[in-house]
Amino acid sequence: MTAWGGKDNPQRWKPVGFEQHKTRGEVAVLVKRDRTVLRHHERIGNIPSPIRVKVGRHSVRLYSPTEVEQIVAFFAAIDEKLAKQKRRRKKRR
Predict the structure, then answer these.
(1) Would you tell me how many other CB atoms lie within 10 Å of the CB of residue 63?
(2) Which of 37, 41, 64, 80 has its CA 20 to 30 A from that of 24?
Protein backbone atom coordinates (compact mmCIF):
# COMPACT_ATOMS: atom_id res chain seq x y z
CA MET A 1 0.00 0.00 0.00
CA THR A 2 1.36 3.41 -0.89
CA ALA A 3 1.34 6.50 1.28
CA TRP A 4 -1.71 7.66 -0.69
CA GLY A 5 -3.76 4.68 0.42
CA GLY A 6 -5.72 2.08 -1.48
CA LYS A 7 -7.93 2.39 -4.54
CA ASP A 8 -11.12 2.81 -2.51
CA ASN A 9 -9.59 5.23 -0.01
CA PRO A 10 -11.10 8.70 -0.63
CA GLN A 11 -8.31 10.28 1.43
CA ARG A 12 -5.88 9.64 -1.41
CA TRP A 13 -7.66 12.26 -3.53
CA LYS A 14 -7.55 14.96 -0.85
CA PRO A 15 -4.60 17.34 -0.91
CA VAL A 16 -2.91 18.60 2.24
CA GLY A 17 -5.18 21.01 4.08
CA PHE A 18 -8.40 19.47 2.72
CA GLU A 19 -8.57 16.35 4.90
CA GLN A 20 -11.81 17.53 6.58
CA HIS A 21 -13.54 18.14 3.24
CA LYS A 22 -15.74 15.42 1.76
CA THR A 23 -16.20 14.08 -1.76
CA ARG A 24 -19.63 13.70 -3.36
CA GLY A 25 -19.48 9.95 -2.71
CA GLU A 26 -18.79 10.45 0.99
CA VAL A 27 -21.65 12.94 1.31
CA ALA A 28 -23.96 10.58 -0.58
CA VAL A 29 -23.25 7.84 1.97
CA LEU A 30 -23.74 10.32 4.81
CA VAL A 31 -27.22 11.40 3.64
CA LYS A 32 -28.15 7.94 2.30
CA ARG A 33 -28.79 9.15 -1.23
CA ASP A 34 -27.31 8.35 -4.62
CA ARG A 35 -24.62 10.67 -6.03
CA THR A 36 -26.91 11.55 -8.93
CA VAL A 37 -29.49 12.94 -6.49
CA LEU A 38 -26.82 15.26 -5.08
CA ARG A 39 -25.90 16.39 -8.57
CA HIS A 40 -29.54 17.06 -9.40
CA HIS A 41 -30.01 19.23 -6.31
CA GLU A 42 -26.75 21.08 -7.07
CA ARG A 43 -27.96 21.93 -10.55
CA ILE A 44 -31.31 23.32 -9.40
CA GLY A 45 -29.63 25.24 -6.59
CA ASN A 46 -30.98 23.49 -3.50
CA ILE A 47 -27.54 22.58 -2.17
CA PRO A 48 -24.14 24.25 -2.68
CA SER A 49 -21.76 23.07 -5.38
CA PRO A 50 -18.41 21.58 -4.34
CA ILE A 51 -15.17 23.42 -4.99
CA ARG A 52 -12.57 22.12 -7.44
CA VAL A 53 -9.19 21.37 -5.90
CA LYS A 54 -6.16 20.47 -7.99
CA VAL A 55 -4.37 17.23 -7.12
CA GLY A 56 -1.35 17.13 -9.39
CA ARG A 57 -2.67 17.10 -12.96
CA HIS A 58 -6.14 16.11 -11.79
CA SER A 59 -8.81 18.01 -9.94
CA VAL A 60 -11.29 16.71 -7.40
CA ARG A 61 -14.53 18.30 -6.22
CA LEU A 62 -14.80 18.63 -2.45
CA TYR A 63 -17.45 19.96 -0.08
CA SER A 64 -16.30 22.01 2.90
CA PRO A 65 -17.50 20.95 6.37
CA THR A 66 -20.01 23.84 6.50
CA GLU A 67 -21.42 22.83 3.11
CA VAL A 68 -21.73 19.25 4.33
CA GLU A 69 -23.76 20.50 7.33
CA GLN A 70 -26.06 22.45 4.98
CA ILE A 71 -26.58 19.39 2.78
CA VAL A 72 -27.30 17.11 5.75
CA ALA A 73 -29.81 19.66 7.10
CA PHE A 74 -31.48 19.96 3.68
CA PHE A 75 -32.00 16.21 3.33
CA ALA A 76 -33.05 15.87 6.98
CA ALA A 77 -35.79 18.42 6.32
CA ILE A 78 -36.92 16.45 3.26
CA ASP A 79 -36.94 13.21 5.28
CA GLU A 80 -38.98 14.85 8.05
CA LYS A 81 -41.48 16.21 5.54
CA LEU A 82 -41.90 12.78 3.94
CA ALA A 83 -42.30 11.11 7.34
CA LYS A 84 -44.99 13.62 8.28
CA GLN A 85 -46.88 12.93 5.03
CA LYS A 86 -46.59 9.20 5.66
CA ARG A 87 -48.06 9.58 9.16
CA ARG A 88 -50.98 11.60 7.75
CA ARG A 89 -51.74 8.89 5.18
CA LYS A 90 -51.78 6.26 7.93
CA LYS A 91 -54.29 8.25 9.98
CA ARG A 92 -56.68 8.57 7.02
CA ARG A 93 -56.91 4.81 6.54
Answers:
(1) 23
(2) 80
Q: How far apart are CA 27 and CA 61, in angstroms?
A: 12
List the chain domain ranges: 16-92
Cβ(26)–Cβ(10) under 8 Å?
Answer: yes
Q: Taking the alpha carbons of 27, 30, 34, 39 in that order, is the dihedral positive or negative?
A: negative
- 19-31 pLDDT, tens digit each: 899 999 999 999 9
Q: Which long-range contacts (C-beta less than 8 Å, at least 24 apart) are formed by 74-77? A: 74/41, 74/46, 74/47, 75/31, 75/33
pTM above 0.70, yes or no: yes
pLDDT at 10 over 80: no
The shares of helix, strand and coil residues in the chain, as percent rounded to the nearest 5, are 55, 15, 35
Distance CA 11, CA 20 (A): 10
Return the higher-pLDDT residue of 8 and 46.
Answer: 46
